[in-house]
Amino acid sequence: MNRMAAIGVTVSHAVEQPEPRQATAEEASLLGIQKAALVTHIRRTYYSDDGRPVETADIVVPAAHCEIVYEIPINR
């Protein structure tokens, strides 16, 4: 996160909360899908090394058009 580093903030981790739901009318229009189609809403929050939330994002992806895959590194 170069933007945060530029202002002296070190981002240590992010947390994502995926939630399946139906698209709103506005989301459906923007995504080119039917109103009430299934989507995955992901709330992402970035945290600084001292535990403060420093940035958030709401991501909405059509469930029928996308596959969400996570890779989780295991530190040994």
Automatic annotation (TrEMBL):
Please name the GO terms of the biological process aspect recorded for this protein, alphabetically.
negative regulation of DNA-templated transcription
Q: Where is the UbiC transcription regulator-associated domain?
A: 7-63
The GO terms this record gives for MF are:
DNA binding
What Pfam families does the entry give? UTRA
InterPro entries the record matches? Bact_HTH_transcr_reg, Chorismate_lyase_/UTRA_dom_sf, UTRA
Checking PANTHER family in the record gives: GNTR-FAMILY TRANSCRIPTIONAL REGULATOR (PTHR44846:SF17), MANNOSYL-D-GLYCERATE TRANSPORT/METABOLISM SYSTEM REPRESSOR MNGR-RELATED (PTHR44846)
Query: Would you tell me the protein name for this molecule?
Result: GntR family transcriptional regulator
